[in-house]
Amino acid sequence: MDIFLSSQSSQFSGFELSDLEDESESPGSVSPPSSVRTSDLSFDEESDGASDLSDRNPDSDIEEDNDELPDSDGEFDSQLSEIPSSQLTSTSDEDFWSEQLEDIDIPDFSEMTGPVHMLPLNAQAVDFFQLFFEERFFQHLAEQTNLYAQQTSENDQHWEEVTTAEIKAFIGINILMGVMQLSSYRLYWSSDPFLGNTGIRSVMTENRFSKLYQYIHVNNNQTAVPRDSEGFDKLHKVRPMINMVEHTFKDHYKPKQNQTVDEAMVKYKGRFSIKQYMPGKPIKRGMKVWMRYFTSVPLLRCLERNGIYGCGTIKCTSIGLPDDVTDPPRMARGESIARQNGNLVATVWQDKKKVS
C-alpha cells in the first residue's frame, strides 16, 4: 500500500525475524505526497568483489545491536515552521480517513546542500577519508586494542603496544587488500613478485599485521551489557565507530531534497548473529538492511512534524491504516483505492497481487 506522509518513532524498537514477511507477500507502501521519498527498491546486485575482511579474520566475533531508530534531533525545525499549521496532520483525527483527496502544498526546499569542508582542490583521497574518520578515532582504536591485548594475553611475549600511526597503517593495508584481493593475507608478504606487495611489506611485517589482527578492538568488552538485560547492544563492539560516523557524515555533507532509502544485503561471511542467509539473492549471506519493515504511519507522521515528506511501501498489517486499505474489496487488475488523513495518503493497488 502506498502511504504519503506520517507519529512516534519510539514505537519501533527493533525486530525479530519472525515478524518479517516473505518478500513474495503483498507489500505495503506508505508515502506522503512529498518531495522526499523513501522506496523499497532493492539493490542486492552489489559487487561480489567487495572487500570482505571477515575472510581474512576467521576469529571475528562482532556482536549485535538493538535495531533502534534514532530519535529526531530537531534539525528540521526551520523547515517545519514553513508548513502551514492547517496542513499538519492532527493527532486527534488520526482515525479518520477520507475518500476525498485534497492537494497538498509542499514548501520550497531552500537548504544548502552538498559537501561541507575546507579541503583544497588538490586534496588527496586520504584527506577526505580523514574528514569522516578523525584522529581521535585512531587514538581510540589504539587504546582499545592495547586494552584488549592486556585483558586477554598478559603473557604474550610477541605483543608490543600499538601506536596510532600503526593503527592507521593497519587500516590502510586492509583497504588495499580489499582492492587487490588474494586468497590469503599472507600472500601479500610473499617473495613471489607476482603475488607479494612491496608497498605493504615496506610498511608492516607479516607477524606484526597478524598480531594487530588478533587484538584489534573498537570497544571494551568488559563494559558490554549482558544479553537479555536492559540496554543490551548487539553492536557494542563497534558502537564508538558508529556513533562517530553518524556525526562526521552529517558534519561534512548536507543531503539534497530527495533521498532514497533502499533495501540491500551487505555482504558478510564472518560470525555475526544478525547475519542472514537468503539463497534466492545474488548476495546470499550478509546483513540485510530493511526498509519496508520500518515504514509505518507513525514514522511518516513523525517525519512530517520535522518538516520531512516521504513515501514508501508498507505492510498491510501495519497499525494506523484504514480498513479499506488493510482489507480492500475485490478489485480488477489496475484498480486502486486511496484514502487521505491530513497530509497522509494510503493507497492499495491491484496488480497480480495487491500492492500497498
TrEMBL record:
<feature type="domain" description="PiggyBac transposable element-derived protein">
    <location>
        <begin position="293"/>
        <end position="355"/>
    </location>
</feature>
<feature type="region of interest" description="Disordered">
    <location>
        <begin position="1"/>
        <end position="93"/>
    </location>
</feature>
<feature type="compositionally biased region" description="Low complexity">
    <location>
        <begin position="1"/>
        <end position="17"/>
    </location>
</feature>
<feature type="compositionally biased region" description="Polar residues">
    <location>
        <begin position="78"/>
        <end position="91"/>
    </location>
</feature>
<feature type="compositionally biased region" description="Low complexity">
    <location>
        <begin position="26"/>
        <end position="36"/>
    </location>
</feature>
<feature type="compositionally biased region" description="Acidic residues">
    <location>
        <begin position="60"/>
        <end position="76"/>
    </location>
</feature>
<protein>
    <recommendedName>
        <fullName>PiggyBac transposable element-derived protein domain-containing protein</fullName>
    </recommendedName>
</protein>
<feature type="domain" description="PiggyBac transposable element-derived protein">
    <location>
        <begin position="125"/>
        <end position="292"/>
    </location>
</feature>
<dbReference type="Pfam" id="PF13843">
    <property type="entry name" value="DDE_Tnp_1_7"/>
</dbReference>
<dbReference type="InterPro" id="IPR029526">
    <property type="entry name" value="PGBD"/>
</dbReference>
